[in-house]
Amino acid sequence: MTDIHDLTRKLQRQSDSKIIMYVGDGLGGLPLEPGGKTELETASTPHLDELAKRSSLGRSIPVLPGIAPGSGPGHLGLFGYDPLKYDIGRGVLEALGIDFDLGPNDVAIRGNFCTIDGDGNISDRRAGRIGSDIGAKLCEKLDTIEIPGVEVFVHHVKEYRLVIVFRQEGLGGDVDDTDPQRTGVPPLAPHGNDEASAKTAEVCAEFLRQAAEVLKDDAPANLLTMRGIAKMPPIPRFEEVYGTKAAAIAVYPMYRGLARLVGMDILDAGQTLDDQMACLEKHWNDYDFFFVHFKYTDSTGEDGNFDAKVQRTEELDSAIPKMNALKPDVLIVTGDHSTPAKMKAHSGHAVPTLLASDICRFDGSQTFGESACRVGELGQFEAKYLMLYALAHAGRLEKYGA
Length: 402
Known about the structure:
By secondary structure, this protein is an alpha/beta fold. It has 15 helices and 13 strands. An eight-stranded mixed beta sheet has the order 9-8-10-1-11-12-2-13, with helices on both faces. Strands 3, 4, 5, 6 and 7 form a five-stranded antiparallel beta sheet that branches.
C-alpha cells in the first residue's frame, strides 16, 4: 500500500490558501443518561452551529475503532501521521515542549507528582493538581539527584508535570510506565522490554528510590510516577510531506512538543484563548497552516465534571468569530480523542469533526454535535486522512493519475 506521505509529496500543489486546524482536546463526549445530550450538544455553541450550516461533518477514528488513544497518537493522527507507525513516547513530547534539545543518548520521561499514603499506595495520581510554583521548587530538589555514570536532568513543565532526562550511551527507550492509572495501589516497578531498556529501567528505579527520600516531607507531592519513557525517533517533516509552512499555537508544553516533533514553528501562544487568537492574527501572513490547541475540554472531562466541560466547550466556541474574520480557506474543528465526563478518561469513541470550506459538500447540518456528525457528509474515517481532506479543500493537491 502506498504511504500517505509518498502520495502527498507527489501531489503537492503550491497555493496561497490558508488552513486552520482548531483542536478541542478530548472534544467528544457521552450523555449522562441514555437518550440525553453529550457535553458538546448541551453547550450553547452558536458560532459552531452557524459554521456547521456551511460545512461537512463527520466522525474521526484516532487510531482504530474502540482504541482509546493518548494525546500523542491522537494528535499525530490529526497531523496525518499513522499513529501505529509513529509510536512516540510522551516523555519525548514533553521534553520537546519545553525546548529541551534531545540527543541520541537521551531517554526522556514524563513525570507526574503523586500522593503516596502510609501503606505505599497512590491516593492521588496528580498530587491534588499542585500549582506550578510548588512543582517548580520540587523539581529543583529532584535535580540534585545523582546516579553514577548517568547525566540527570529534571525540568518542571506545568503544575504537577515534570520532565526527566537520562543521558548515557546504551540506554534503551522501551520501558513500561510506573503509573498504574488508578489509585489504591502502589506505583508499578519500571520494566525494560529489551536489554538496553532493562538498563534504563535500573536507572529509573534508582532515581525513584532517591526521589522517595527527597520528597518524603512534601505531601501531597511526596513521590512521582513515570510515563512515556522513550528516545527521540526519526519522523518526516510536516512542510516536506505537505508543502505547507506550519505553525502551532498551543499553551501546554506537550502539544507544543508534538508540533515541534513534526517540524512546525512554535509561536508564543500566551496563556489564554484570547492570547492565542491575538497570536493567530499577528502571524496570519507568515504561515499556510495553523494548529490551534485548546486543552480544557479534556481536563474537565478527565475530572468527570460534565457541567465544567460544557462551560469549556462554550469557551471553545467563542473563538470561532475571530478565526472566521481572517477568512481561512479551510477551517477544521475537531478533537484528538473523546474524553467523556461520564468515564473520566480518554475513550475509544469517534470524534466529532467539522470541515468548513467554500468548496466542501454541505450536508444540511444545523448544529455541531455527535448526533449531527453521525449522519454528516464526511462519514466515519480514520483521523490520519484528515490532512488529505484539508489539503484538497485548500486546493493544495494535484490530480492523481492521468
